[in-house]
Amino acid sequence: MILATVSCPSGYSATQTAKCVDILSSLYNCGSVGFICSSKYRICSAGVCKTAPTTQLSGATFIPAWVGTSTDDDIQQVSLPVNVTLYNYSTSLVTVSSNGLLCLGSCTIAYANENLPTALVGGPTAFVFWYDLAINDGTGQMVSYSTSGTAPNRITGFEYYLSSTANPSSYYHFLILFYENLPNIVEYVYLEISDGESSAGPSMTYSVDQAFAVAYNTTLQFDTNAGTYIRLG
């Protein structure tokens, strides 16, 4: 029998039926095709069975209202010790959405993403991963934030570890980074993103209708003043 072949992107491996499967975050193909994590583990992170992914931000603060509870379609304001800047607008008061948005003006609890610009938000907004996401209590899922370093070189980060409302066993782990000495610059770091199908493309608005649009450890850096972006990884 001649098996079909397929070329898979980084983080995926081909099965005998020529299908690319996620071997970095799939509980059923963790590290290699067909390896299933036992029931004591909640996720597969970087190809290793774990109870939660490794936290990236040091000394981070959890969004208080989302601690110890399941959360879906909610927004919370966060007061920062330093201004963040997008499109030449600076503020230290931002609004975090559980659906993968960070707003410098008015925000939305809408879970269904749409074409940009949208009237659902008012003011500069980081659409890092606008999708129907949720926090499930007892899983370690959370959104946290921190500011590190000393002026004028402080870095403010927001770390999201969430799951899909439709599929609680999936998970999405990504960061938003702002640099005090680089106003108008914002970085999106996609550490591990479940879903490799084409539906993942429209959900982040970056690469519409393309399968595997969000590869592991992809970093996108946007210059909101110049209206440009580069892919760093």
Automatic annotation (TrEMBL):
Domain of life where this protein originates: Eukaryota
Protein name: Uncharacterized protein
The organism of origin for this protein: Adineta steineri
